[in-house]
Structure formats: structure tokens, C-alpha cells
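User: I'm putting together notes for a lab meeting next week and I want to include a structural view of one of the chains we've been expressing. I don't have a solved structure, so I'd like a prediction I can at least talk through. The sequence is below, exactly as it appears in our construct file.
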Amino acid sequence: MTVPTSSQSTSPSSSPRTSPSTSPSSPSSSSTPSLDDVRVLVVDDLEQNRKLLHAVLEPRGFLVRSEESGEAALRALAQADVDVVLLDVLMPGLDGYETCAAIKGNPRTALLPVVMLTASGTQERLRALEVGADDFITKPFDQAELVARVRSLARVRRLHATVVEQAAALERWNSELESRVAAQVEDLERLSRLRRFLSPQIAGLIVESGDESFLESHRRDITTVFTDLRGFTAFAETAEPEETTWVLREYHAVLGELVFAYEGTLEHFAGDGLMVFFNDPPPCPDAPQRAVRMALDMRDRVDDLAAGWSRRGYDLGFGVGIAQGYATLGRVGFEGRWDYAAIGTVTNVAARLCAAASARQVLVSPRVRAGLDGRFVTRSLGPLELRGIARPLEVHEVLGLSDDTSTLQEAP
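Assistant: Thanks for the context. Below is the predicted structure for the 412-residue chain, given as C-alpha cells.
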């Protein structure tokens, strides 16, 4: 179909299927901003009409491609991205309505703006809207109006593309954020598990490094500390449950703080009993000294608690046993409830030394005493028979710290 424009002159004898001689008006740089990357597909069966639309749009910065049929237009849209389609209505084969319906029926091009070039008839306009056309230009068209409509629809198309890109970017960002949150939650869960038996500092370092190989079964030379309260069983039998809970809460808070301060590994709390070991997972070259210093600080802190307990009529004392030796260490338990445990004779010896200790006594094995320097005052208690231990064990009591650090202090 011929596409006359309001800015061209026509001859009375001009055929309706020919394009009259015309020159398009020059673009106005002041009124129309350049959009030289807007891609326009012109679809018209008449070459002169296609050339006319090229002549109108290209000087204004549009990238124009043309096809002579609806079928060719659909093939072109399957291969290239376009911002706006200018579509003639009357064409052989697929007409403009059928071509528009096919464009709108394809999910890939459903939102592509289509401007239909129609006659002035209302029925043509209604049918164009029914098949999904976004706009229409009535022939003869005004060049400025055509350019403005194409530019407006291209802007909408670009805005929609931007929204789609932003939505995709947001989806990617959300996916990445979900992954990060999942990783952080996993780290927090790991940190929570590790903090059951490690100081917050050590647990944090392990989570940061991502190395949990220490949880696998292994052997290590460790120094083990057992503590409990003298007289607790009798106290728990006569005291109200609330009183027992209150005492344990105070006791656990004090001891737990010191375990983490000395960077010990907390194996377990069980009532008034506590087991801590040193030199695993983090290496501790001065494990015996650190264990004994922690025990002495615990004794001093529990002395303060015991004074308050005594005023309430609770007769409770604090005893400690410390031993050094090899143990098998690693994760034990089941899914959802894992613990970190040390298994070996050294833990039994520490427990038996603790059971043999009187109130305020810190009893240590020979290897622990040998690992102490001159800051510690000790005395020998001689060989002691310990329940569950085959042979008598040379036991030493740590009395405290001395200002003289030249030699290991042995009390008379």
C-alpha cells in the first residue's frame, strides 16, 4: 500500500500503488533528541514505501531495517532484536493484522511495540487494537508525529528492557544473597557447635579457616582437668531443686568464663563435674602450666562463691585432678547432637585424682608436675591407690604460686 505523507506533494495522475517524488523534511536537532541506537523494523510490500520510511527515520538517528512481507518480518524478528515495528496493514500473504497477532503471540516478542499504518477507518483501528497493536498512524502521516510515536514507544521498550534487566539482576542478587545468607547461617551453626567446647576466639578462627579436620578421630598428648564440688551429692539430696539450680548456675558461670579465658577445650559439664583439656584442638606447648594456673584461679573464684554458699548453710568445697597423657579425640554422637570427646586412660586418671582431692586440693600426676616451672609450689603425697587404676600413682598437690621462679618449689 502506498504511504503518502503530509509533507510531500502529489500529482493528480499518480498511481495509488506508486510513491510520489518527495524529499523528507530535515530533522530538527533542537526539538528531537538523537536516539541513534533505536532499531526500527519497517514491514511493507512496496519498495517505495520502505524507502520513504528509511528516508524519514534514518536521518534522525534510527537504525532501520525493512522487510517486504509479514513472513519475512517474523523470520527477521526470530534472528534480531528490534525496538519498534512499523507494520503496513494491506500486504499479500500474511497481512498486517495476522503479522501483528503472530508477533504478540510469541512470548519472545509479545511486548515488542507495533505501530500499524492504517487508513482513517475506525474499523481498521479497532481491528489493529484487537490483534495487539500498540499504536497506529493514519495515512497520510505527519513525519514529526511518526518520529515522535516511534521515539515514545522505543523509550517505553527500552524502559521495559531496563526493568527486565534490573529484575534479572535483582534475581541474581537475591540468589547470591540467599547463598551468602545460607553460608553465613551454616557458619553460625558451625560456630555454635564449636563454641560448645571451644573458646569463642578459637571457634571463630576455626570457622574462618574452614578447617574442621580436627573433628576426625586422632591421637594427641593432652593435659586433662577434672573438677567437682565436695559435698554436692549430700547438698542436692536435701536442698530444694531451685537452690541446687542456683548454685550450679553460679558455679558454671565462673568456671566456664575461666575455661574460655585460658583457651581450654570444654569436654563436658555434668552436674557439678567439669572436664577440660589442653593441647587439642589448638596446640598448647605449656599445657600443664596453663591447666594448673586455670585450676588455681578456679579454686580462688570458687572460694568467693563458697563464702556466700556458707552463709546460706551450704557446705561445699572444690577439688581438682589433673593428668597428662595420650588420648583419642574427635567427634562423637549422632546427627543433630555431636560432642567433642577425649577417650583414654589420661581422662580416667584425672577423674580419679579429682575424686581423691579434698576441698581446695589440686592434685596432679607426675607428668604434670614435671611440666611445671619454678612459679608453682607443690608437695608430694606419695603413691596413692586410685580406684580403677592398676598401679599406685605418685601424686603431687599444687599449693599455689611462688615469687621465686628459679626452681620448682617443693613444700615440706
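A couple of points you could mention at the meeting. Residues 215-410 form a domain with the Alpha-Beta Plaits fold (CATH 3.30.70.1230). The chain has a mean pLDDT of 85.

User: Perfect, that's what I needed.
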